[in-house]
């Protein structure tokens, strides 16, 4: 098979895989729905003459649709952020939480649950502290004259550990019969209680973050060649890297604020996409968007269909993601080396 044929197949896969999984997801769950009922329910607002059960309408529009959209948005956001970080830091083991955003958001959510418990407050706190943690990481790295990527990464490790300790402190003082289970469940990651109102709140940061990464994906190729080479071609590496980090932070903070901490998406999916479309970020970033959305949607379908008790999605992404990552890393190690 020649390269042109592979490119066409890849494009078809990237476009139609999320679409197929989107419609399939409506059929799965504790209350099975036939494809005809799903189609009629979706078309009912346009064609009122179609007869649709009120129960099915409620399940499709109020329960499954927000959850499906959330899986698509969160998976796409985490995968894009992971691909961008792996590119600008030139490390295949980098994930979106490298600079402390996930633990920062986790602390914000745990704090909100402890003092309030309201879902909107939890989402706002998680989003805000995710951004705060990365901002603190960046400011600390700039305080060192030596600076550079290594100091930024080490600052991220330190801030992530700091917020992890704060999360442990909150769990220690939380009511073990009320607040503690809620905090632990949130930290494991889940899409079970997503509402359209929660999704609306993250639309703007998600769109802004995606636009930043899609616009700068050409520059990521130059950054991967080294700062000196990028400067010789007229690029300001520090400024571009900061913009990319800002875009990744918006995506990750917004995603984590509605889903909790879901690991391995931002680490595994870029490798999977790279195996199919290659390392060129002009194609890799959109491919990661598509595969990330499809992968998390598939995992979420498994979590709510495999057994009667729903498994937190963060557990499944780790169980399934680890062996996939090890296989992909073995196949792709020579490229990174």
Automatic annotation (TrEMBL):
GO terms classed as biological process: siderophore-iron import into cell
Q: Which GO terms describe its molecular function?
A: transmembrane transporter activity
The membrane topology term of the UniProt record is: Multi-pass membrane protein
UniProt entry tagged with the keyword DNA damage: no
Q: Where in the cell is it found?
A: Cell membrane
Q: Name one GO cellular component term.
A: plasma membrane
Into which family does the record put it? Belongs to the binding-protein-dependent transport system permease family. FecCD subfamily.
**Protein name, per record:** Iron complex transport system permease protein
Source organism of this protein record: Methanobrevibacter gottschalkii DSM 11977
Q: What is the lineage of its organism?
A: Archaea, Methanobacteriati, Methanobacteriota, Methanomada group, Methanobacteria
